[in-house]
Inverse folding.
């Protein structure tokens, strides 16, 4: 299944993973610029609360039931 990049969705040119937003992309990068900057491993990303959605795009965090309910009020 090919992924369509539109809106804020993007693909990292380092690790080739897909992200649902620039914020999620930025969250998966770690280290100091110009020194040891790199992409996080999947284990590191999930440890930071990120998750791989069924559509194949990484997201920065899950919406809690409370937030989800407030968003739909």
């Amino acid at each position: 299944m090919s992924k369509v990049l539109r809106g804020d969705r993007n693909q990292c040119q380092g690790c080739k993973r897909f992200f649902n937003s620039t914020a999620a992309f930025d969250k998966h990068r770690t280290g100091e610029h110009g020194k040891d900057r790199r992409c996080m491993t999947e284990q590191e990303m999930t440890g930071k609360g990120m998750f791989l959605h069924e559509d194949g795009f990484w997201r920065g965090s899950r919406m809690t039931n409370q937030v989800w309910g407030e968003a739909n009020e």
In short: The chain has one domain: 10-71. Strands lie at 10-11, 18-19, 29-30, 38-39, 51-52, 58-59.
